[in-house]
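Sequence and structure are kept together here, with a separate record for every protein. An example record follows, reproduced without changes.
>
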Amino acid sequence: MKKKASTHSAPPAWEQVSLIAKFADLQEQQYRTLLTLSAMLELLVDKGLLTRAEIESKADALKAADSGMLALISALSHPMASDGHDGSLAMDTRLV
């Protein structure tokens, strides 16, 4: 009786190389985006259109909003993970 080939084998080396190259490209793209954003923010501050305090305040507000959204997404993705007693979001999955 012949054994079937395992379908859970590691990807071929060229696929791994391709994934590593894609990751490197993403890192380069992220670096360029961050550099451009930093330059734009510096120019806005230099021209007196924004202050560093305004930028930091807005960043804090966006971070807080993102934290709330991430908690909501997590609660929706894992409805049984919390019972709501710790102040986190919980989803009622009982049938009516």
Notes: The chain has a mean pLDDT of 80. Helices lie at 13-46, 52-77. The chain has two helices and no strands.
